[in-house]
From TrEMBL:
Extent of Low complexity compositional bias: 195-209
Transmembrane segments: 9-29, 35-54
Coiled coil: none
Organism: Streptomyces zinciresistens K42
Name the record gives this protein: Integral membrane protein
Keyword entries, A-Z: Membrane, Transmembrane, Transmembrane helix
Keyword tRNA-binding on entry: no
Domain of life: Bacteria
Region Disordered, residue ranges: 186-209
InterPro entries named in the record: DUF4191 (IPR025445)
Length: 209
């Protein structure tokens, strides 16, 4: 997958490993410890190669997910410990969608889709949540590359930089209150099992009860 998006990945990794090992070998010969520093250089070369590969692989993955429906939800699922995420808490007929994450920074609503349309989705979701969690800070982010938006590859970092204002018990209590409120997926009158082929959204979109 990385090679498809990054044609130079093999050359880059080989260069990083070779340069790292070469530097340690050169230092080893200078100070009379070529074997010791050669072994150390080999280990650090593997480490440096792994780090570079991980970053470029992540960049390639984000590049392929960019603009795909549900990409933000995939990032939220891997944001790390301390966060509870609920995908697709709001959606419209155009498949603009809002996901929700709850952590020590409060509630974060992450929207995907047309920037103008998702603003109304975010506002509606905030009004709905305000009835049960009015005392919890709410942040809203729109994923995209335009002004005022957050790039997909920076979404996790942006969320982790938010100030922590809630304690662990407060996070748990907030999650419980939001779950009691319900969400789009739990309120949808869908039959169990695979979704029927050709199923369309009802006129007017989904409405919370």
């Amino acid at each position: 997958m990385t090679r498809r998006a990054d044609k130079k990945i093999g050359l880059v990794l080989a260069s990083v490993g070779t340069v790292t090992l070469g530097v340690f070998l050169a230092i080893g010969f200078l100070i009379g410890l070529p074997i010791y520093l050669g072994i150390l250089g080999l280990l650090l070369a593997f480490l440096a190669t792994a780090i570079v590969f991980g970053r470029r692989a992540e960049r390639a993955a984000f590049g392929q997910m960019e603009g795909q429906p549900g990409a933000a939800a995939a990032v939220l699922d891997n944001i790390g410990r301390g966060w509870s995420t609920t995908p697709a808490v709001a959606m419209n007929r155009s498949q603009d969608v809002v996901h929700r994450a709850v952590g020590k920074a409060g509630i974060v609503l992450v929207a995907e889709g047309n920037p103008n349309r998702v603003k109304s989705l975010l506002a509606a979701e905030k009004r709905k949540m305000n009835r049960v969690v009015a005392d919890v800070p709410v942040h809203d982010l729109i994923v995209g590359v335009g002004e005022g938006q957050v790039e997909l590859k920076k979404l996790r970092t942006t969320m982790l930089k938010l100030s922590r204002v809630l304690s662990g018990p407060q996070v748990t209590a907030t999650n419980d209150r939001l779950k009691a409120m319900g969400d789009l997926m739990s309120n949808m009158p869908l039959p169990k099992g695979p979704m029927p082929k050709g199923m369309k959204l009802p006129k007017g979109g989904f409405k919370s009860r």
